[in-house]
What does this fold into?
Amino acid sequence: MIIFITYLFNWLAFLILLFVLCLLLLWMWSNIRAKVPFVGIPNSVLPDIEEALALKEGSVVYDLGCGDARVLFYLAKNNPKLKYIGIENSPFPFVIASVLSLWNKKINNINVEIIKKDFFDVDLSNATHIFTYLYPNIMDDLLPKFDKELKTGTRIVSASFHFTGKREIALIDLKRGKYQLGKLLYVYEF
Ligand SMILES: C[S@@+](CC[C@H](N)C(=O)[O-])C[C@H]1O[C@@H](n2cnc3c(N)ncnc32)[C@H](O)[C@@H]1O
It folds into this structure.
């Protein structure tokens, strides 16, 4: 009996190790391929993001490059009646966000849709609010798409990175430490 339990335990430990190794490989592969690595916005700035977005009844909220979709889950928890869509093209964060989405739907009745796609290929014409935490050059690449597709009044909140060709309507200094991420929020209206 003891031999059997030891045998079973060894197999279980091996399977867990294999699973962790697969996740690690997926994470490495995702970051090697991505132009923007998956770095989640610090949880402590989520209330500031919610305030800057100024959501209202009927809002349709996108996170372009949603990572693990922490921003959308946070917003959806506080404003459950709105529509939330996370776009992510990298396999590792997409898997994490999708699992969390299923979990939150079942356990907390929170609805966040996660789509595996390049956000340049997603029609954003129904967006009322967009959150981004990307890179400067990607912001500038997105500007013509936003100018073409977004309806008047769509609000963008970008953590840390701004458009060089468009003036923000507000710049929020989150007063974070020198080595902390997510120091500034740029707010735009189209
Ligand atoms: C810095 S992380 C931000 C994650 C999340 N928005 C947050 O604030 O916690 C940027 C994410 O954008 C994703 N990304 C970059 N370019 C993308 C693209 N063209 N289409 C979809 N996702 C993209 C990356 O895979 C990465 O997960």
Summary: The CA atoms of residues 9 and 57 lie 53 Å apart. The first strand starts at residue 60 and ends at 64. The chain has two domains: 1-33, 43-189.
